[in-house]
User: Fold this.
Amino acid sequence: MPISRRAALAAALATSAFMDTALAAGQPGDQKDAVEGQVDALTKAILAGDGAALDALTLDGLSYGHSSGLVQDKKAFIAPLASKRQTFPSITLSDRSVSIVGDDAIARHVFTGEVVTDGKSAPVHIGVLQVWHRDGDRWRLLARQAFKI
Assistant:
């Protein structure tokens, strides 16, 4: 069955439009927005002490470093928050940036807020580096290191 030039051109244009739409969905800007959304979701889960959300947002091999030098695995990071032994009445993130490197993302920000641990309140003002890994169709936290500013 012969195909006319007009039909071939229409098919090529339709395919091109479809490919442009498919590729746009995976553009770095869209991925940066997705990572920013996950950073915000992690912050909300920390504020709420939501253990299930924290579990879903982090990878099993999580390395969570504090500005004090303490490094925790996933279970040790989530436990005090989920049990409400440690709470964050407020958190503000500023000076935010995200860069995508393949299936990984580097998020940086300044973390300002208040932490209450075993009833004792302390101000927090630290720099944070987070490494997020694309896990299927979502981004999950692989590593976090805080540092004093």
Summary: Residues 8-25 have pLDDT under 50 and may be disordered. The first strand starts at residue 58 and ends at 65. The CA atoms of residues 45 and 53 lie 6 Å apart.
